[in-house]
Write a structure and sequence with these properties.
By secondary structure, the chain is an alpha/beta fold. It contains 8 helices and 6 strands.
Length: 239
């Protein structure tokens, strides 16, 4: 869908989308970030330094603990191949502009891999996909300057058309917006070796959502973490 078509639809459907969005904000269950360690060392073998950063999904909202959230599942699987020194810096509600602020306030250090979850809050604020793409490029440059990773992993904006907390047609509209963001980012990374887009295929996971119908649940975090680990080992080489 072209940008003019997207905004044309937004104009036509604006009143109902606004009403549905207001309703969703009012009734959707508010889940908090789970307890647990946000840094540590695990595993054995060659050393691997990993930074996980981003929004509420990176922070593990929808899981009971950080061990069952993205950071815990990713580290658990990577630790089968490496000695993993890891750090989680993530904040619920973070959008791409906020991500730049978060990075600016994160202590400079050396990481081999940076995994980022970002995009849902940009979709819900109706940031244009083209502006979103330019911000992902800025974020990647900031990450490279501060942490010098060999690999930056952009985790795809999730399939919002599967978010049961969203009624139709809002669910369809948000899903199409998210897909366009992913399409543009994938296109921009076609010739890039140090930055990749990871698509966890969570839309194929029945029962993968948390109780709020909006965030990943423990099963989704397991699949996501395992998939990310496989991708990272593939890119960096199995020790």
């Amino acid at each position: 869908m072209r940008e003019w078509q997207r905004y044309g639809l937004l104009t036509l459907m604006g009143p109902i989308l606004w009403l549905q969005g207001t309703y969703v904000r009012k009734v959707t269950q508010r889940l908090t970030e789970p307890p647990g360690e946000r840094s540590g060392v695990a595993g054995s073998g060659p050393h691997l330094r990993v930074l996980i950063t981003g929004d509420s999904a990176a922070a593990g909202v929808g899981a009971d603990s950080q061990e069952t959230a993205l950071s815990g599942q990713l580290v658990e699987h990577l630790a089968q191949h490496y000695t993993v020194t890891w750090l989680l810096t993530a904040v619920s509600g973070l959008d791409s502009d906020g991500m730049l602020d978060l990075l600016a306030n994160t202590e400079t250090a050396k990481f081999d891999v940076v995994v980022m979850s970002m995009g849902v809050n940009d979709v819900t604020s109706l940031m244009s996909p083209s502006k979103w793409l330019s911000l992902q490029i800025r974020i990647a440059k900031e990450i490279q300057a501060r942490f010098e990773p060999a690999l930056i992993v952009h985790s795809a904006v999730p399939p919002m058309e599967r978010f049961t907390a969203l009624p139709q047609p809002l669910r369809w509209f948000m899903g199409s917006w998210a897909r366009e963001m992913n399409r543009l980012l994938q296109q921009s990374l076609s010739d890039c070796r140090s930055r990749i887009l990871h698509i966890p295929f969570l839309e194929r996971l029945p029962g993968g959502l948390a109780t709020d119908g909006f965030h990943p649940g423990p099963l989704a975090y397991t699949v996501w973490g395992q998939g990310l680990s496989t991708e990272i080992v593939l890119r960096l080489g199995k020790p």
